[in-house]
Each structure stands twice: as C-alpha cells, then as structure tokens.
C-alpha cells in the first residue's frame, strides 16, 4: 500500500514538473524554432523553409535597432553591477556578523527596495538626476537603479552564508599565528568563494535583462532589453527571434560557466580537506 502511494505521489509530482517545464520553456521553444525561418519566412508558423539567414542578418546593418551597441552596453553594465554587488555584499556580510548600532535600520533600508515597484524606483531616480542637472545615462543612473535590485539579494545571500559559517576555522587559523588578513585570505575567502560566484552570477543576470528599472534611467542609449522591446513595435522579420535565441544562449552560457567554476572550486576544496 505504501509502495503504491509513493508511486502515485511520484507520478503526480512528475506530471506537475512537466507542466511547469512546458509553461516555462514553451514560449522560448517557439522563439527558437521561428528564428530558423527561411529568407522569405514571417513571424508566425508554419515555417517557410529552414535556414540561418536571420542569424547572419544580425551582423548586418539594420534599418531599425542597434544590436551590437545595446548588447555591449548591457554586458558592460552587468559587469559593473556584478563587481559592486559582490564587493558590497561581502563587506556587508562580514560587518553584520556582529551587532552594531543602527544595524537593524541599515538592514531594512537595504532590502526596502525589494518591496517598492521597479518602475517607481526608475522614475524617481530619473527625476532626481534631471532635477539635479545631470543627464540620465546607462552607466550612471541606470547603474544605480540596478544596484537597488541586485544588492538586497546579494546581501541576503551573504547573510545566509555567514550565518552557517563556523568561526572555529578562523579561531584555529589565529591560534596558528595567522593575522586577520591571512585568516580572511586563506581560510574564509576560499570557503565562501562558491557563494560569491553565485552572488556575482545573480547580480549579472538580474542587471543584464532588467527592463523596468532601466526604462527611465538609461538616457539616450538603450540597453539590450530596451532595444528588443522597441523593436517589437517596428520590426517585422524573424531577426528579432534570432536575437532572442542568441541572447538566451548567451545567458545559459554564462550560467554554465559560473556553475563550472563553482564545481571546480568545490573539487579543489575537497582535495585539500
């Protein structure tokens, strides 16, 4: 009886997972398939031939849209946000290991932006820049807007990491004569490095595809999400699908590289221990 019950639960969970995967990746698979339309293909099924024509078309000069420049802006902005998110989250995690005056207020101020609508934050930052006589730009106002989104997640992750981190390792290093910097460099940092890579990946991906907090803060030059959104109103060829396929594969590549680095670090730690 118990075996039959477990079998039934397994099939129910498997069916639920299958529906979830289809819901998540179904629209993405449609974009992927339509990006291989023939030269005379349109934006809908059925396919009119199969070719790589629209992928080659991405590298040609477009009448509407600037793929290359918008991609470089999104990539650069993502790297900037990633670095700051990792550094600030690490410092915050170290600082909050001990109680200090104002720590509660600082914590809630850090995570408050998670409950504020993204478009309101974007609008507010854009208005502040304009009122201050500064021109909103992707590398300044959008950079700050993205940090209001990535930093709370990074800080919360590092809080969880250090909450499970045993101080016994640091005490053992100090007993052996290590300085505070040596303890951090050779004991703490290697142990939390997979988590830092995760924070960096989280920060980069959140910034790379962020739309709402970029809408009012990017200035005259679009990031890739804004460029794609703008193209949906005036591009009538599958080149838009080809762009979606390429950017999706790029995102998955970044994730796989990060996971590979984390796996490599864990294997190294396992060999050392």
Tell me what the structure shows.
The chain has 273 residues and is mainly α. It has a domain at 67-233: MetI-like fold. It is built from eleven helices and no strands. The chain has helices spanning 2-34, 53-58, 67-95, 103-111, 118-131, 141-163, 168-175, 180-208, 212-215, 224-231, 239-272. Helix 3 runs antiparallel to helix 8, helix 3 (67-95) crosses helix 10 and helix 8 runs antiparallel to helix 11. The longest helix has 34 residues, at 239-272. The chain is globular, with a radius of gyration of 23 Å. The mean pLDDT is 86. It comes from Rhizobium mesoamericanum STM3625. Keywords: Cell membrane, Membrane, Transmembrane, Transmembrane helix, Transport. InterPro entries: Bact_Polyamine_Transport, MetI-like, MetI-like_sf. Pfam families: BPD_transp_1. The chain crosses the membrane at residues 12-36, 75-96, 105-129, 149-166, 187-208, 239-265.
Describe this structure in a few short sentences.
The chain has a domain at 67-233: MetI-like fold (Orthogonal Bundle), CATH 1.10.3720.10.
